[in-house]
């Protein structure tokens, strides 16, 4: 059905670019036509494509694909900002990951991007009080993508989790906007507390591979956590910390470390 004449034309440069890249991919590699049509070209919006990809990847004998698509659509309806968060994540990956030449790549291949989108659905369910279903989505996300994010954790926009294997984020953790982290990062607790017990990562932070940030501590905006560090104390804004336990070793080195992705300490 045609859109009413009084409505302005839809403007969605991210989704339009992905669809263009999909058509070009089919021309270059026709054998992938079924995947590209199913995952991209059969969908009018990025939101429906995300729901389809979520369902295809997480379906199992315990919960079917059609039901998962309905769950995703309900979560998107309950949280209209979910699609815009996904667009910000796609842009973040395209800008920060040198292995990414096309916007379609995270949607098709990257478990970091796909795992974060699955978490957004689980988090929406958690907020609605549907906690067993949210926990089921968390379990399947961990099994499929190798990253374990509690559905209660709050994740911002413009998130880039590179490689993503063995990511662990606890229930009361908060991750701000425009944060980048690499594989094997843990945002965890330090004991058996039942209340607020996990880290708060402010906007623009870069967390290196294998870093552990533990306890209800705050990592200030635009800071860097060096690879392999164990952070047990709060980190001021715009600083670099490194070591076990981590200590301040200098300034962050730039205004936006999560965008520059520079992990060097000097």
The name CATH uses for the topology of the largest domain is serine acetyltransferase, domain 1
Write down the CATH class of the largest domain: Mainly Alpha
Largest sheet: 6 strands, mixed
- Rounded to the nearest angstrom, the radius of gyration is 19 Å
Oligomeric state as shown: single chain
Give the % helix.
40-55%
Strand order of the largest sheet: 3-6-9-12-14-15
What is the averaged pLDDT score? 94
| Strand fraction | 5-15%
C-alpha termini separation = 59 Å
> How many independent structural domains?
2
Question: What's the overall geometry?
Answer: globular
Low confidence ranges: 1-8
CATH architecture of the largest domain: Orthogonal Bundle
Give, in order, the helices and strands.
HHHHHHHHEEEEEEEEEEEEEEEH
CATH superfamily of the largest domain: serine acetyltransferase, domain 1
> Strand tally, please?
15
Structural class based on helices, strands and sheet pairing: alpha/beta
Number of helical segments with 4 or more residues: 9
Family: Belongs to the transferase hexapeptide repeat family.
GO cellular component, one term: cytoplasm
Keywords: Acyltransferase, Amino-acid biosynthesis, Repeat, Transferase
Catalytic activity: L-serine + acetyl-CoA = O-acetyl-L-serine + CoA
């Amino acid at each position: 059905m045609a859109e009413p004449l009084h409505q302005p034309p839809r403007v969605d440069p991210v989704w339009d670019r992905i669809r263009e890249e999909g058509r070009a991919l089919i021309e270059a590699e026709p054998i992938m036509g079924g995947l590209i049509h199913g995952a991209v070209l059969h969908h009018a919006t990025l939101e429906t494509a995300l729901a389809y990809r979520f369902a295809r990847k997480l379906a199992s004998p315990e919960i079917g694909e059609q039901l998962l698509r309905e769950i995703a659509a309900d979560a998107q309806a309950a949280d209209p900002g979910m699609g815009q968060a996904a667009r910000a994540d796609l842009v973040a990956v395209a800008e920060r990951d040198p292995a990414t030449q096309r916007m379609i790549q995270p949607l098709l291949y990257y478990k970091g991007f796909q795992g974060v989108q699955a978490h957004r659905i689980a988090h929406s369910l958690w907020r609605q009080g549907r906690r067993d279903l949210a926990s089921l989505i968390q379990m399947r996300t961990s099994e499929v993508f190798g990253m374990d994010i509690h559905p209660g954790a709050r994740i911002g926009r413009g998130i880039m989790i590179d490689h993503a294997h063995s990511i662990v984020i606890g229930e009361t953790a908060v991750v701000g906007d425009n944060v980048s982290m690499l594989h094997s990062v843990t945002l965890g607790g330090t004991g058996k507390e039942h209340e607020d017990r996990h880290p708060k990562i402010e906007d623009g932070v870069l967390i290196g591979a294998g870093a552990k940030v533990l306890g209800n501590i705050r990592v200030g905006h635009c800071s860097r956590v060096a690879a392999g560090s164990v952070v047990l104390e709060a980190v001021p804004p715009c600083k670099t910390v490194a070591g076990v336990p981590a200590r301040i070793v200098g300034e962050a080195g730039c205004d936006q470390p999560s965008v520059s992705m520079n992990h060097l300490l000097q």
